[in-house]
Amino acid sequence: MSEGRRIRVALAGQPNVGKSTVFNLLTGLSQHVGNWPGKTVERKEGTYSHNGISVDIVDLPGTYSLTANSAEEVIARDHIIKERPDVVVAVIDASSMERNLYLVAELLSLQTPVIVAVNMMDVADQQGLKIEPEVLQAALGVPVVPMTATKNQGIRELVEAVDELTRDGSTYEPKRPEIREDHRAVLEELEHLVAAYVPQPYPSDWVSLKLLEGDDEITAMMQKGLPEDVWEQVHDILREHEDAVVSVASGRYDWIGRMTRAALVRPGVGQVTLTEKLDRWATHPLWGLLVLAGILGTVFLLTYSLGAPLQGLLETYLVEASARLAASALAGGPSWLMGLIVDGIIGGAGTVLTFIPILIIFFAVMGLLEDVGYMSRAGYVMDRFMHLMGLHGKSFLPLFLGFGCSVPAVMGTRVIDSRAGRLLTTMLVPLVPCTARMVVLAFITPIFFGAAAPLVAWSLVGLNLLVLAVSGVVINRIAFGGERAAFIMELPLYHKPNWQTIGILIWQRSLAFFKRAGTVILVVSVVLWGLSALPTGEIETSYLASAGRLLAPLGALMGLSWQMMVSVLTSFVAKENAIASLGVLYGAGSEAGLAETLPTIMSPAAALSFLVVQMLFIPCVATVVSIFNETKSWRWTLFNLLFLLLVSFGIGILVYQVANLVT
Amino acid sequence: MRWGRSRRAVGPEHEELAKTVRKGGGYDLVEVGYDHGRRPSIASAVEAVIRGGAGRVVVVPAGKLNSSVAEVVSRLQQRHRGVEIVHVQEPADTTGRADWVIRKVREHDPDHMQAEAYFGIGRLSGLGTGETAVIHDFDAGHTVLSRLSALGFTPGSQVTMLQNYGHGPVIVGVRNTRIALGRCEAAKIRVRETACGE
């Protein structure tokens, strides 16, 4: 009988167990990505419908446990405790069952019914591991469903198990883990003390356990909720048993040992897996770097051989063509309308859209490397160097992507585990010279420096990286107390990429970028165009020009005229605009014309400072929007802007004064 | 740093001490025990020496000790009446430690029978590639402790060093998974060599 029941499921699991593959299989494109309220962590939900059953699935962030060490863990447990889904499906990897069951142990101490989905059965099989799901089910007392999500096996059985459990929960009798003997009495004492004061909907036994484990969030919550004298007693107990967390964890692993003893049979020792063989190269101090360099080189190659030409095509056939179309269509109308549409909208937002091919390549590469399992090896190999800047090894790849475009670089900071690490890396991304900034560099250097142009260009790139390193150290010390998150990172087994997962990732990220282009970037381009056209329609007498003239004294310190200051300002929409604006402001008809005019109005020292400012200036609006999106903080976004303004002008002035003395 | 060949291996400073006591004093059965509830306990170390065939055991402090040691020794003596257990109740001389230990043993063991020294606890960061050890305890702050425990690093569990070049981060195998640890983090985990049957 189908009455269209809606079942609410929360999907939990440790990282690298194939949880997203399961989620994607169940929800397909019905899924929709947002953020957990007030947090910067991605939230995915979707629906699965079949035979009158509708399952609403929320994909919880992948976490190793449910202790308040990170925002992800708090989000995961809060969802289960407060939103009360009907079932929690815990996905585990058959080949690391022992470790994965730790999260299941934590989930079982909450009250929501759990179903264990043993995924990657094919990998376990390859390794010679024998798993008996029925035995595990009998031992755990909860439904166990074997699956191989990448081959689409087990999904149907999983949904049936969910359906069955929610219809009739009478046979659900989980065997929960118990704390080790040495701390049992203490736990009971704590439970007894706090039971009356535990706020709804938290279960009081779970809260006592978390208190004993030293969970920061729960401890703070109870400190507020308990009367003074009770808190004193609790606090004394906790202080005396500070390392009880080890005992609690050991207790869980004891339980896991009992559960897996019969259900899991390991082959003899001595099987060298493919992962081990690959890692001999991938994590080697020397070869690992070469492997990484090779991969990065390939990314660069792809970008320039595929991305750039595609971008060029879009430029010609989309942007310019529609500009011409619009121009002819509006030829009869008011000139401001034509200007708005052709220059403001198409010229501004349109140029940004041409970056899509490069973005897609980057999203694809990042998605592929993460899915295959290589990302953590890259982080491992680069950790030694990132360490010096107070960064995590995983910060390297997002920063590297910045050479192509800052937008996917900022989005790429999601792979970093700690918020502090993510913030710091995000702040530093704009200092990595993107291709757009390099375009300006490539145009200007030959004009002024002739044969020495490549040398000057590389030195400027080097300057950027130097500023990046120093800024990293400084910001880390000031904003984060110079601390670095502990380097503890799992190296998952390599496995074949799942193209559906990667495809969905590329689609979602590109869509997000499109939406942003359609909104904020469009608005900013129009506003900037407006400033350059009003009030007279001529850029030389516009508001933008007035702004430029206002900044002229500052510019003088750098040898830059007001026109150059304006051009720097216009680079806010897209970095390459700087050249176009110079062209317009100096009345040069074409780029070739500009190449001839520039040496007559700027000295080489001024050109140098102009370039320095360009390279270190605030990023384009697309990046600023991405930064805000990833950090969800006005403070940090503004800090980034101010910081870069100071750095770019400061160093620009320095370079000009020094260059002047020398030449 | 390499692990010794004896059944019970020794960690850096203790390795040195035990080696010196063995060589300088000419004693074979040199075992380490800790007081105040840490393992291996003094009792287990004494019993190991007794199992090794000792007729006399000299318990010498080589660091600051809790007063409960005297109790432990007297209880052990009651349990093992066939063996003479001597407790040197002087505070440890931390300067020329090995010499002092040997001197004390000689004072109390004039016939040169057995001696007591240290059981090795080392740091995970010192384990060589390919070697396996058992986690003993941790020397870490709360957050790191919590993360390590969740990942499977618990006292009594086995860890295998998969890659250690002496500098930079290491890769260890624990509970059938591969975990990369920074050098500092690996140094926060204390391990002991696996004994037979463990």
Structure description:
- The complex is a heterodimer of chains A (663) and B (198).
- Chain A has helices at 19-27, 71-83, 97-108, 121-126, 133-140, 155-167, 184-194, 204-213, 216-225, 228-240, 244-263, 274-282, 287-329, 335-353, 356-372, 375-388, 396-401, 406-412, 419-428, 435-449, 453-480, 499-533, 543-550, 552-557, 562-570, 577-585, 591-601, 604-616, 621-631, 634-662, and strands at residues 5-13, 32-35, 42-50, 53-59, 87-93, 114-119, 130-131, 144-146, 264-265, 488-490.
- Chain A contains 30 helices and ten strands.
- In chain A, strands 2-3-4-1-5-6-8 form a seven-stranded mixed β-sheet, sandwiched between helices. In chain A, strands 7-9 form a two-stranded antiparallel sheet.
- The longest helix of chain A has 43 residues, at 287-329.
- Chain B is of the alpha+beta class.
- Chain B folds into two domains: 12-108, Rossmann fold (3-Layer(aba) Sandwich), CATH 3.40.50.1400; 122-193, Ferrous iron transport protein A (FeoA) (SH3 type barrels).
- In chain B, α1 packs across α4 (97-108) and α2 (42-51) runs parallel beside α3.
- Classes of the chains: A alpha/beta (663), B alpha+beta (198).
- Chain A binds chain B through residues 64-65, 67, 69, 95-96, 98-99, 102, 213-214, 242-243, 245-246, 248-250, 253, 266, 275-276, 279, 283, 285, 376, 380, 383-384, 387, 393, 486-492, and chain B through 137-138, 142-152, 154-157, 162-163, 165, 168-169, 171, 174-182, 184-185.
Concise overview:
The complex is a heterodimer of chains A (663) and B (198). With 663 residues, chain A is α/β, with parallel strands linked by helices.
